[in-house]
Amino acid sequence: MTKDQGLPYGAAALRVFDLSIGEMLWSRRTVFMALVVGGPVVLALMFRLVAMFGVALVRVNVVRLGGEAIFGGMFWLLYLRFVIPVLGVFYGTALIADEVEDKTLTYLFTRPIRRGAVLVGKYLAYLACTGLVVLPSVMLVFFLIVPVGGGSVGRAFPSLAVDLGLLGLGLAAYGAVFAFIGAWLRRPLLVGLGFAFGWEQLALLVPGYLRRVTVAYYLQALTPHAMPEDSVLSALQALCRDTPPAAVSLMSLVAIVMLFLWLAARTVERREYVLSD
Hints:
Blueprint: H1 9-25, H2 28-51, E1 59-60, E2 63-64, H3 67-92, H4 94-101, H5 105-109, H6 115-145, H7 153-184, H8 189-205, H9 215-221, H10 232-240, H11 246-270
Antiparallel strand pairs: 1-2
Helix pairs in contact: 1-6, 2-3, 2-6, 3-6, 3-7, 3-8, 6-7, 6-11, 7-11, 9-11
């Protein structure tokens, strides 16, 4: 362990990342994550098979929707509104809480590195692990759905690039928020679920400034897809966002990541964790 003595903060975080990434990829949570992101892929495959027989998948005012519009709806409703918050909750809250529950936190904290670097390293491992599974899922759905109805993959590809960037930013923002909750509370999972699927959903529907203290508000403002008019999704999309400027949304998300990751690392540095029997 002496070779870790005096290791800089960043290098220490990368060392913890290297130790944690393999554990995360082979954990039971990864099986759960694969099931979550596999759902949209299965749905997209079903859509593609149905479309091969010439059946219109979705119609709005008797007009058949193309693959680009269907993909936009799936991305907005399934990934941004469900998959990303779920993974943020289940992984972010567990970064420290699982170590406390498994009584392995002492091993990490006795290494001659800063406690905050442990949290940051595990957070980076979370980003890599979820990204390796979620981003390919989105690409599979894209290539299965967009060609339906004569859609052009080349024309829709710039939107896909934005989608992938949004997913990475969403995972980073939700992960940082729930990493702080996990470092702060003894049993954070229920609080995290309540925040993602209780508070955020309610705040987005209530007029006023409450929505500005949610992650979803800023993510949805950056979504490149507009739902077809007079559709259920377009009504939901209009109700759930009032489109703040893209620059404001981007800066707000970056600020959320930096603030809550700093709060999480600071909490780990200062809190005394009691490993009960």
